[in-house]
Amino acid sequence: MLLGSIVLLFARLGDHSLWTDEAVTAITCVGVWQTGDTSTWLDDHNLLTYRDGFLLKNQKDRYTSPLQFYLAAPFIGLIGHSTFACRLPFAICGFATVVLTLRWLRRSNPSNLMWIAATILQLTNASFFLFQRQCRYFALSTFLSVAVAYLYCHWNGSRRQLWWIAVGMSALLASQYLDYAAMVVCLLIDHGIWGRRKRAIRSVDWLVLMIPQVLTAALVCPIWNPIARAVDIAGPVVASTHPVVAIVPQPWLADYLRLSWWNLRDLIACDFAVLPLLAICPILYLKSKNLVLLRAPLALIAFILAIAFFTAHPLPAEGNAEVRYLAPVLPLCIAIGILAVGAMRVVPLWTRGVLLALAGLAIFLQGSALGFYSELLHTPAEPYAPLTAWINQNLPANATVYICPDLCVAPTMWSAPKATYVWQLSDPPRSDYRSLSDKYFKGRIPPDCLIAFGPYGDEVRHWRDHFAQTGVHYEQVATIPVYYKEMFRPELIWRSFTTIRPVPGEEICIFRRVR
Q1: Segment 81-88 mean pLDDT
Q2: Which of 128, 208, 343, 508 gives a 20 to 30 Å CA spacing to 471?
Q3: Which residues lie across from 401 on neighbouring strands?
Q4: Rounded to an integer, what distance in angstroms lies between the CA atom of residue 280 and that of residue 290?
């Protein structure tokens, strides 16, 4: 289990380009390494503003939990500007999660059947490895959540152990606010129903738990405060350039119920858990009276509902959950499967055989594990590698480039940083952007190159025709025959393990200014 996890975590870690969120993280890490703060300037001439600067205040990210940046910054600064260096610290966090899971399993004195089940469930959970291999907070939040759960479940009443739980929760707070809030809900529910019966937390112990978290919140949240981000994502600028965030206003309760259902549905769709094993836990509890068969599924449900509660807002019209916030429950889903297999000893042998057969069939039908293994052998084509190769080979240093949509700017900027990526900000600008050069504001000056991803070619052609009226002309100089979408995100609902062949209108088109 350990050796297989090492292969699946680290093999070909740097093959894929960074996708959008990863590249945003990597560029911010460079800012941290160079300045100590979450600046998004890259090589002095590129300012990453991502979605019209909605994450920035005074040209620094002030709304994203910061620990991920400070974790990865030394790796990028010391190893170098590479995709492998960006992902390495998070893959190490994933490895630490596997090691801690193994230690937890050994302490439970499992049967041979549970060891076999653990190995199969761990090594066939493609989502677990995909999320741990990203240059993003997923692996860090997952490790911290598992570490806190491990300490909580093995708490022997000592204040030293409570102190380590508080440190883990404080780090989780600085890693991802939503996952921290969901973890707090899970711990409070579990302790309120079961934990206090075994060993209640005394008033002084509550102070030991709370003071480090309060101090962390007092230090981190005033600087990186997502609640202060007052942006209407349905505004005309964002809605026109980012149709994926188009919203359908609904009452808050309706949004919450809908998002809760989406979270559960897409968790299953992304193969987080083996559904037959998850479904039979309550039945097995009735037979075995093992409380863990109730506590673990309840923790999963509480986490899902808590994430929906804290993120319920006008929802994306596309109708998908933000599965990335659920990454910390991946080890829990694996553990539920292991617990279910271990509890099958209380049912007749033929019933056990049927249940194991159904679980095996469910794993086989998922197909995501085989797709992931195949991808490690043969990396599918993706849009950023050939585009950045073209930019590096054909454009001089500091050539101005407009990319549409601007969601695709960050990965391109990371891999081809010598160009200057313009028009990321709307015009008129916010007060903290007014001192910037005209090239950063959309439409002010004609760039050297216009690049369109797939269906965004119409907007680029509009700008080509607009500048033609002013005597500035562009000609199409290249078409890169790759599918324009980044189909290598960690969410299985948005991932393809094979190369997608583009049809006309789905390639990347490049227009260059005629001198």
Answers
A1: 96
A2: 508
A3: 421, 449
A4: 13
To which residue do tokens 């711990």 refer?
Answer: 187
Instruction: Please state, in angstroms and rounded to a whole number, the distance separating the CA atoms of residues 323 and 303.
Output: 12
The Cα 423–Cα 305 span in angstroms is 39
Maximum C-alpha span of the chain: 83
What residue type is 334 in one-letter code?
I
Residue 282 CB coordination number (10 Å):
12
Main-chain phi, psi angles of 230, to 5 degrees: -95, 80
3-class SS at 252? Answer: helix
How far does CA 60 lie from the centroid of its chain?
A: 21
Residue with tokens 């119920």: 257
Number of residues that make up the chain = 515
Cα dihedral 301→306→308→310 (10° resolution)? 180
Q: Residues 217-259: pLDDT tens digits?
A: 999 999 998 877 644 333 333 333 333 333 445 677 888 888 8
**355's tokens:** 């249940």
What pLDDT sits at residue 233? Answer: 38
Burial 245-265 (b: 16+ CB within 10 A, else e): bebeeeeeeebbebbbebbbe
Residue 428, Ramachandran bin (φ over 0: left; ψ between -120 and 50: alpha; else beta): beta
Query: Can you give the pLDDT at residue 341?
Result: 93
Q: Which amino acid is at 197?
A: R
Dihedral of alpha carbons 175, 145, 320, 71, sign: positive
**d(Cα 333, Cα 264) in Å, to the nearest integer?**
12
Give CA separation, 14 vs 1, 65, 201, 448, in Å: 23, 24, 45, 30
The per-residue pLDDT for 240 is: 32
pLDDT digits (tens, 9 = 90+) for 368-423: 999 999 999 999 999 999 999 999 999 999 999 999 999 999 999 999 999 999 99
Q: Tens digit of pLDDT for each residue in 425-469? A: 998 888 888 889 999 999 999 999 999 999 999 999 999 999 999
Nearest to 88 by CA among 184, 189, 203, 10: 10
Please report the pLDDT score of residue 252 as a whole number: 76
Structure tokens at 373: 């293994």
Q: Whole-angstrom Cα distance, residue 197 to residue 9?
A: 39
With CA atoms as reference, report the closest residue to 166 among 105, 214, 103, 222.
Answer: 214
Q: Is 202 helix (H, G, I), strand (E, B) or coil?
A: coil
Alpha helices in 271-408 (DSSP H): 275-279, 281-288, 292-311, 330-343, 349-366, 368-377, 384-394
Give the residue among 406, 408, 407, 415 at the shortest CA–CA distance from 385.
Answer: 415
Instruction: Report which of 82, 80, 73, 75 is spatially closest to residue 34, judged by C-alpha positions.
Output: 73
Amino acid 17 reads S
Token pair recorded at residue 167 = 């440190």
